[in-house]
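User:
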Amino acid sequence: MKKLILSLILFTFLTAFQTKEKDVFICTTKSSKTYHLKKDCIGLKKCKSEIKKITKSKAERVGRGWCKLESKKTN
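Assistant: Predicted structure:
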């Protein structure tokens, strides 16, 4: 019984500090340089190829920056 309680406490402690990675949207053209928080962002309306959902950290690792149109809209 003690092992079960200790296991539950450890599990709770380890999972309490995990954060879910935020998903963002990118246009898959080579000229695209931004990521978007919403799929219906006005900046994505010009995208002529596929719109892909990826994590924010992955978008930043491949050199994408936050869409300036969304930053003005959210302020």
